[in-house]
Amino acid sequence: MKSAAPEPPVIDPTLPLDKSTVLRAVGDWVRREVDLSELLERVIDAVTRAMEAERCTIYLVDRARGEIFSKAARLLEIKEIRLKIGQGVAGLVAKSGELFNLPRTSDDPRIYREIDKATGFTTRSMVCGPIKDKRGEILGVIQVLNKKVGTFDTSDEELLVGLAAQIGTVLESTSLYAQLRAPTPVAYHYNRIVGDSPLMRKVYDRVAKAAQTDATVLLTGETGTGKGLIARAIHFNGTRRDKPFVAVDCAAIPETLVENELFGHERGAFTGADRKMPGKFEIADSGTVFLDEIGDLPLSLQGKLLRVIQDKEFERVGGTETKKVDVRIVAATHRNLEEAVSKGLFREDLYYRIRVVTFEMPPLRSRGSEDLLRLVRHFLEEFSRRHRKDVRELAADALQRLMAHTWPGNIRELENCIEGAVVMASGKVLETADLALAPRAAGGAGGGAAADLSSLSWNQMEKRYIEAVLASTGGNRAEAARRMGIGRNTLLRKLKEFGL
Q1: Tens digit of pLDDT for each residue in 291-329?
Q2: By the 8 A CB rule, do 166 and 58 touch?
Q3: Would residue 8 count as lying in a domain?
Q4: What is the pTM of this model?
Q5: Is 385 found in the same domain as 261?
Q6: Domain boundary among 335, 360, 385
Q7: How far, in Å, CA of 392 to CA of 377, rounded?
């Protein structure tokens, strides 16, 4: 029997909403890699209905500019509202942290009239409250306008406070949270994907376009650049978002088990097969299958995969019944598939079939210092919470050391470096001594190791990265595999491949 993915809560547009329904829905939405703007727009639509109002706006704080900006609003007339902190009612809430309930706005001097002039909308009544994190720090403001019948009462205020708390929890669980607390301009696109460099903006543009289709996507790039997160973003921002997303690491599964993992088996197909089992493709029916490290897929199975992509059909191991399946394929690899094709290690027809839409994920060293700093702040925030440590700052020399490093393991290496540093930190400031960086991989900002690495092939650089991580763990292979974010069997295979 095929196991079904849990469906998100359905909000019936014909029924009134209560607080618990809204909170349950919001809690489910944030667990998916939905574009944050879309997530918050779902929230404001639910809040508008639940409070029987005409409009709702969520503002977020931009500390670098001393402003709040509308992150979610049904503004048909203008693209965005920006207010100085302290300007208008929403700005006052952002400054004071207090809730305002204005039953009449026509003669209230706190109302900033320029917004109604720009939108052509008439604000008659308003309830507006702060969005805070668990520390009580203001992250934004939620503003609800024009009660359809009567004015906003104490029950509306209580509902707004509850919803604001839930939204605060939502924001704390996203990768936007670190930016809302940082003294730098906010730049945010997809949950858990951090960066705003020109290279990453190109990636976001391609995600947005690919997500709206069912085209097969091939993600390429070095290990640790975030291909898995991009695959999830493509799925959860597309038409299949409420269907299963099933990831398969082709490099982590023993070759003898790959076919069974992908296509399942019938009862009696082999010793121990006492019942039939669906494979990943059946489980993902109507959704997306993410084939990570597809370059490691055994040649003997590539023809069967090609058939699934082209004809949407397959047979289970030990079976004769043809199964039909409707799945979208997103594949990823750090290997040069064209080279693999030329060596007869990868089928040419499969290669051309999976590269309908291609993304090349940029290495961290190419994304610039601003993206690196955003990622450092994001991981500091995440791991401080996870490990219950109050490490929020980075010493200047520690930051300089991070900037000088060439990051052959990319974001995964940075993530593990910051997590280890947070765990080892003695105080609130992360020091250079807390950073577990291999000396040979660090260089001066002007070149050094970077110039040396630029002359290496990918295989040579991957070998050096594995050597460096093994050295930092004292030869502990299990720990090295954990830090690199790969399975122990994969590491053992690479050690054998590189003669280590």
Answers
A1: 999 999 999 999 999 999 999 999 999 999 999 999 999
A2: no
A3: no
A4: 0.70
A5: no
A6: 360
A7: 8
Spell out the alpha helix ranges (H) of 112-226. 113-119, 154-172, 177-181, 198-211
User: Looking at the structure, do residues 387 and 407 belong to the same domain, yes or no?
Assistant: yes
Q: Which alpha helices (DSSP H) does 264-389 contain, by range?
A: 280-283, 299-311, 337-342, 348-354, 369-386
Mapping DSSP to helix (H, G, I), strand (E, B) and coil, where does residue 416 land? helix
> Which residues partner with 73 through β-bridges?
57
The structure tokens 């508008």 sit at: 48
For residue 332, the tally of other CB atoms under 10 A from its CB is 26
> Six-digit token pair at 177?
């949270």
Residues 190 and 35: beta-carbon distance below 8 Å: yes
210 and 346 in a common domain:
yes
H or E element, residue 36? helix 36-50
**Rounded CA gap, 89 and 398, in Å?**
41
Q: Does residue 13 lie within any of the structural domains? A: no
* Co-location of 389 and 348 in the same domain: no
Q: Are residues 379 and 303 in the same domain?
A: no
Does the residue 5 lie in any domain? no
- Cα 64 versus chain centre, distance: 24
Contact status, residue 287 vs residue 243, Cβ threshold 8 Å:
yes
Distance between CA atoms of residues 421 and 430, nearest Å: 7
Contacts 24+ apart (CB under 8 A), 457-461: 458/222, 458/334, 458/336, 459/498, 461/408
Could you give the CA distance from residue 72 to residue 415 in angstroms, rounded to a whole number?
A: 30
Residue ranges with strand state E in 334-442 = 357-360, 393-394, 429-430
Q: What is the pLDDT of residue 344?
A: 94
Tokens representing 312 are: 């949407």
Q: Running DSSP on this structure, what letter comes out for residue 97?
A: -
Tell me the per-residue pLDDT of 211-240, one tens digit each, with 9 for 90 and over: 999 999 999 999 999 999 999 999 988 899
Task: State the Cα angle at 170 between 167 and 175, rounded to 5°.
Answer: 135
- The number of domains in the chain is 3
What is the average pLDDT score of the chain?
A: 85
Query: Considering just the CA atoms, what is the radius of gyration of the chain in Å?
Result: 26
For 472, the domain range is 366-498
Residue where one domain finishes, among candidates 181, 213, 238 = 181
Q: Say yes or no: 318 and 395 in one domain.
A: no
Mean pLDDT over 234-259 rounds to 90
